[in-house]
Amino acid sequence: MSNTAVKVQEKQQQHSSVRPQAKPKRKLKLRLTLGEKIVLFSFLLFAFYSSVKIISNQVTIYQVNKHIQQLEGTMDEQKKRNNDLYVEVQQLSTYERILEKAKELGLTLNENNVKVVQE
Question: What is the pTM of this model?
Fold first, then answer.
């Protein structure tokens, strides 16, 4: 073999035999101090309390809105009844009907005793 071929072979053997050694992996242990634990616990407690409070407020708002809608429906029904009663009063208070009822009861119309009242 030629000299250069031997040198190339030696370099290849050196590269294959010399491997970088991997450093052993250390397990990272998370150590928290007492103060950090207290801060973390209080944060988690606050987050839990806040979420429960928000949910309870939303439930209360939902119930109040539902009650308002029920009251509005009741108001609409009452307005309709009031309007129907108003129409009935208008029909029953016509002049012709009052005159007819008076004649049924035996009353007579005396033109001299009639006074016209205007609003």
Answer: 0.52
| Cα first-last separation, the chain | 136
| Whether the Cβ atoms of residue 99 and residue 109 lie closer than 8 Å to each other | yes
Whole-angstrom CA distances from 2 to 8, 15, 18, 19, 79 are 10, 20, 24, 27, 114
Distance CA 107, CA 109 (A): 7
Separation CA 7–CA 2 (nearest Å): 9
Please, what is the Cα angle at 78 between 75 and 81, to 5 degrees? 155
Could you report the per-residue pLDDT of 68-80, keeping only the tens digit for each? 999 999 999 999 9
User: Pick the residue with more confidence: 53 or 94?
Assistant: 53
Euclidean distance between CA atoms 55 and 61, whole angstroms: 10
55-60, Cβ contacts within 8 angstroms, sequence gap of 24 or more: none
CA 108, CA 119: separation in Å to the nearest integer? 25
